[in-house]
Structures are given as structure tokens and as C-alpha cells.
Amino acid sequence: MSESPQPDSDQPIQSSRGLLSIVGIGPGCDGLIAPQALGAIAEADLVVGYSTYIKLVKHLLKDKCIVRTGMTEEIARARAAIDEARKGRKVTVISSGDAGVYGMCSLVFGVLQEDGWTRDASPELRIVPGISAINACASLVGAPLGHDFCAISLSDLLTPWQSIRKKIDRAADADFVIGLYNPASGRRQRQIVEAQEIIAKYRSGTTPVAIVKSAYRKQQSTVICNLDNFLDYEIGMNTTVLVGSTQTIVYDGFMVTPRGYANKYTWEGEVLEGQQPARSLNPDMLPVREDS
Ligand code: SAH
Fold it and tell me: Ligand 1 mean position to 289 CA, how many Å?
């Protein structure tokens, strides 16, 4: 693996427009990286990312030129990636989870916009989706996102806390399942406490809550607890907190938010009294006689 904080700009030009791929690497294990993302990493001349994420995919980066930077250097990282791609190189920017969810993707757009970039200009842009923490964490605890849900980041570095508070309040009132990203860090401790107080105005203390740490990584841990007691558990940087809606239940250790079938059908598939059956237009679902 070759590394250089200042990428070598004498690399051969490979395409006149250059290619900038922005790729989510999923929660942290190889099996959950999309094949297209693996492809974009494999074909890259240069891989750019926050050092923690570079470490997660280190084994895929043998002989790659890498620009890795710290957490607060995102703008420099986006700038470097765009400039290198403009030279005709294939540059792949990696973010954890999905790059479009609190990741590098919107920041790259910000820098491109500043440059007056348009779709047909250099570099060519390709965005590859990834499995975001909310999906990864949900899969480890059951089906908590079975009905309407939202994601809220508790990081108030770039967003005023008042605005985050308001979103928590409205989401809690509207009965969304809430996925809390960036719930706490060494310095960010008060926000999750306030979030709990706001949600508790609308939901009972027994509302199921899942705390998922380092999903699909070595240090993975999951706890299913409730709105009253979830603050008793360790919540840190690599944790996502999933707060159930008023409909969410715990079933044999799984957290499940029903889609609503039981309001309309019996579990034998019969329509309940007073309910209209749904009509299927899918020919596969229509009864077909064996001899037809
Ligand atoms: N782009 C990422 C989110 C980056 S914000 C994504 O789509 O997942 C960083 C936050 O994501 C963390 O504070 C944590 O809340 C959550 N997160 C990222 N990876 C995680 C993992 N493996 N397990 C649990 N939470 C994770």
C-alpha cells in the first residue's frame, strides 16, 4: 500500500474528464459493501477518506495511492479529490455507511457548486449507495423500521441545537421511529439526555429503544431497553440509537414496528370486518388453474 498526503500529480492521465466516484462502504464489514462500491475502489487510482474508514477497507487498498485526513478536514479532502479527478484520474471518495447520509457526498456537491461545475464538465461524477447505519443497526435488532421513520443527527457542530431540538420534538409528536445518529461523544453528552426528555413528552417510558454499537464491526454490541432506562447504557461515537414509535413492540428479544397488516387482516389472510380487501394487479398473484 502506498500512501501520500499530497497525491502525486504526475500520474498518467487516464481519461480526459476524470472520474470521481463517491462510495459508501457500509457499516464496516466486507460482506455489506455493494459490489459496485468494491468495483469503484478496485479501479481507483486514488482513494480519499477519513482515516478510520480507510482503515476499515485497508485490505482492499493494496498498492493504491491514498489521501487520508482527520475528521475535521473534510473540505480539504473533497477539494483534493475533485482536483485530482480533474487531472484525468479515477478518484474514489469513501464514507462509512451511505456517503449521502451525513457523509462526504453533499460536501463534494458543495465544493463542485462553488467551482461552477456542471454535469457534463470534468470530473464525471458517480455515486454508489451504501448500507447506512440505520439499516445495519435495524437488521441486528429485528424490524424496528417497519413503519415510517426518520434519522436525526445529534451533532450540533454544523447545525444549531435549537433546530435539532425542534426536529426531535416534531418527529416524536408525529410518531416516527427515530434513528439518532451521532448521539454522543467525549464532549457531546448533554444532547442525548435532552433528546430523551423531548421524546418522553410524547411516548411512554416503556417504548422500546435499541442501542447498537459498532454494527458489523469487531466491537459490535446491541441492547434493547426502553425510553425510561436507555441512558443507563453506554452510548458513544459509534452508536446509533433507535427509538420506537408508540406502535413498536419487543417480541422475544426483537424490536418490531408493525406495518399495520393486523389492522386489516387476520393472520390467515382474511379481511377483517369493515375493511376493504386490497386488489392486486400483479398477474403472478391472480389465481391460475393448473390446466390452463
Ligand atoms: N454515512 C454514515 C453516517 C455517518 S455519521 C452512514 O450512512 O451510516 C456517524 C454516525 O453514524 C455515528 O455517530 C453513528 O451514530 C452512526 N454509525 C456509523 N457506523 C455505525 C456502525 N457501524 N454502528 C452503529 N452506528 C454507526
Answer: 50
Q: Looking at ligand 1, which residue's alpha carbon is closest to its atom 15?
A: 181
The whole-model pTM stands at: 0.89
Give residue 189's identity as a one-letter amino acid code.
Q
Name the 3-class secondary structure at 212. strand
CA–centroid distance, 240 to ligand 1, in Å, is 7
Ligand 1 atom having least distance to the Cα of 241: 15
Fold annotation for 134-256? 3.30.950
Nearest to 44, CA basis, from 17, 72, 70, 14: 14
Say whether 245 sits in a helix, a strand or coil.
Answer: coil
CATH of 19-131, one of 3.40.50.2000, 3.40.1010.10, 3.40.50.150, 2.40.50.140: 3.40.1010.10
Strands 65-69 and 46-50: parallel
Domain ranges (residues) in the chain = 19-131, 134-256
Give the pLDDT of the chain (292 residues) as one tens digit per residue. 444 444 444 444 455 899 999 999 999 999 999 999 999 999 999 999 988 888 889 999 988 888 887 756 889 999 999 999 999 999 999 999 999 999 999 999 999 999 999 999 999 999 999 999 999 999 999 999 999 999 999 999 999 999 999 999 999 999 999 999 999 999 899 999 999 999 999 999 999 999 999 999 999 999 999 999 999 999 999 999 999 999 999 999 999 999 988 888 888 888 888 888 777 667 666 666 665 4
